[in-house]
Automatic annotation (TrEMBL):
<comment type="similarity">
    <text>Belongs to the CobD/CbiB family.</text>
</comment>
<keyword id="KW-1003">Cell membrane</keyword>
<dbReference type="GO" id="GO:0005886">
    <property type="term" value="C:plasma membrane"/>
</dbReference>
<comment type="function">
    <text>Converts cobyric acid to cobinamide by the addition of aminopropanol on the F carboxylic group.</text>
</comment>
<protein>
    <recommendedName>
        <fullName>Cobalamin biosynthesis protein CobD</fullName>
    </recommendedName>
</protein>
<keyword id="KW-0169">Cobalamin biosynthesis</keyword>
<feature type="transmembrane region" description="Helical">
    <location>
        <begin position="58"/>
        <end position="78"/>
    </location>
</feature>
<dbReference type="Pfam" id="PF03186">
    <property type="entry name" value="CobD_Cbib"/>
</dbReference>
<feature type="transmembrane region" description="Helical">
    <location>
        <begin position="85"/>
        <end position="104"/>
    </location>
</feature>
<dbReference type="GO" id="GO:0015420">
    <property type="term" value="F:ABC-type vitamin B12 transporter activity"/>
</dbReference>
<feature type="transmembrane region" description="Helical">
    <location>
        <begin position="293"/>
        <end position="315"/>
    </location>
</feature>
<dbReference type="InterPro" id="IPR004485">
    <property type="entry name" value="Cobalamin_biosynth_CobD/CbiB"/>
</dbReference>
<keyword id="KW-0812">Transmembrane</keyword>
<keyword id="KW-0472">Membrane</keyword>
<dbReference type="GO" id="GO:0048472">
    <property type="term" value="F:threonine-phosphate decarboxylase activity"/>
</dbReference>
<comment type="pathway">
    <text>Cofactor biosynthesis; adenosylcobalamin biosynthesis.</text>
</comment>
<keyword id="KW-1133">Transmembrane helix</keyword>
Length: 321
C-alpha cells in the first residue's frame, strides 16, 4: 500500500518528468517510441497472416509490450539497490520519454502560424504529419479543424493518460500506457488487414483509457465553457466511434465553443462523422486555444496529484483520536 511519503515522492517525480519534457522536448534522434514503432512493424509483418489472427494479434501485443514493461520494472528494482535516487531518475525519465505535451505544442502551433500567414501548402504538409486524413485538397477550415481535433484527443492519449498511469504505477505504468496507445494507433483499424489482428491492441487501449479519458473530459469541462461542454458530452459522445475519444473530443469542443466533426477525406473518400461541440467552425487561432486547454489541464492535474499527496502525508502524521 502506498504511504503518504511515497505518494509525495511520486507526485514530485511526475512534476520532474513534465519539466524534462517541457525543457528538452521530444528527442530528435533515437527516440524510443520511434524504435518501438519499427519493432511493431516487424512483428506485424511476421505474424499478421494466415489463420488465427485474433490469437496472433494477442501474441504480437504481448511480444511487443510485456518484455519492455517487465524490463523497466527490473531496471528500476536493480537501480534501487544501488541508490533510491537512481530509481527515481529512471521513473522521471520514463515519464519524459512517454509524455508528449511539448511535442504536441511543437507540432500544432506551426500549423496555426502557417494558416495565419496564408501559407496553405505548408499548413497542409504540417497537418499531414499528425493526422491520417487526406490534406492535399484541404482548405484552411479543414486544416484548423483537424489540428484542433488532434490536439484535444492527444490531450488524453499523449498527456493525461500517461500522467494517470504514472500516478498508478510509476514509470512502468506510463510506459505500458504509451506502448499500448502506440499499438492501437498502428494496429487498431477496423479494416480487413487489422480487424482481427488488431483486436487486442484496440481493446487494451480502450480499457487503459476508460478512466483517463473521462477525467480529461471533466478537466476540459472545468477549464472551459462548463455548461456547453457538459451538454455536448452528454448528447454527442455516444455517437462517436471510439468510446473514449467521444467524451474527450465532445467535451473539449464544447469547452472551446467550436463545431468539430463532420466531413473529412480519408484515402480519397469523404467520410461524414458525427458532430462534436457547438459554436463556430475552427480558425487558425483556435489551434492555440486548444493547446492552451491541454496545457492547463496538465497543470491542473499536477496540482491535484501534489495536493492529494500532501494531504496523505498530513493524514499519516495526525495523532489517532
Amino acid at each position: 500500500m502506498m504511504t503518504g511519503m511515497s505518494a509525495l515522492a511520486l507526485a514530485l517525480l511526475m512534476a520532474a518528468g513534465v519539466a524534462l519534457d517541457w525543457l528538452l522536448g521530444e528527442a530528435r534522434r533515437f527516440h524510443p517510441l520511434v524504435g518501438f514503432g519499427k519493432l511493431a512493424v516487424t512483428i506485424e509483418r511476421a505474424l499478421n497472416h494466415g489463420n488465427g489472427r485474433y490469437a496472433r494479434g494477442i501474441l504480437a501485443w504481448c511480444a511487443a509490450v510485456l518484455p519492455l514493461v517487465a524490463g523497466s520494472i527490473v531496471l528500476i528494482h536493480f537501480a534501487a539497490q544501488i541508490h533510491i535516487l537512481f530509481a527515481a531518475a529512471i521513473h522521471a525519465t520514463l515519464l519524459y520519454l512517454c509524455i508528449g505535451l511539448r511535442s504536441l505544442r511543437d507540432h500544432m502551433l506551426p500549423i496555426a502560424t502557417a494558416l495565419s500567414n496564408a501559407d496553405l501548402p505548408l499548413a497542409r504538409m504540417l497537418t499531414s504529419r499528425i493526422v491520417s486524413r487526406d490534406t492535399v485538397r484541404a482548405e484552411e477550415g479543414d486544416l484548423a479543424k483537424a489540428a484542433v481535433e488532434s490536439t484535444l484527443e492527444n490531450g488524453n492519449d499523449a498527456v493525461f493518460g500517461t500522467l494517470f498511469w504514472f500516478a498508478v504505477a510509476g514509470g512502468p505504468g506510463a510506459l505500458l500506457f504509451r506502448l499500448a496507445n502506440t499499438l492501437d494507433a498502428m494496429w487498431g483499424y477496423r479494416n480487413e488487414r487489422f480487424f482481427a489482428f488488431g483486436w487486442m491492441a484496440a481493446r487494451t487501449d480502450d480499457a487503459l483509457n476508460w478512466i483517463p479519458a473521462r477525467l480529461t473530459a471533466l478537466s476540459y469541462l472545468l477549464l472551459g465553457d462548463a455548461r456547453r461542454a457538459c451538454q455536448c458530452w452528454r448528447t454527442q459522445a455516444a455517437a462517436w466511434p471510439s468510446p473514449n475519444a467521444g467524451p474527450v473530443m465532445s467535451a473539449g469542443a464544447g469547452a472551446l465553443g467550436l463545431a468539430l466533426g463532420g466531413a473529412a477525406e480519408y484515402d480519397g473518400a469523404i467520410e461524414t462523422r458525427p458532430p462534436l461541440g457547438a459554436g463556430h467552425a475552427p480558425r487558425s487561432g483556435d489551434i492555440a486555444r486548444a493547446w492552451s486547454l491541454v496545457a492547463r489541464t496538465t497543470v491542473l492535474w499536477l496540482i491535484v496529484f501534489m495536493v492529494l499527496a500532501v494531504l496523505a502525508v498530513l493524514a499519516e502524521r495526525m495523532p489517532d483520536a
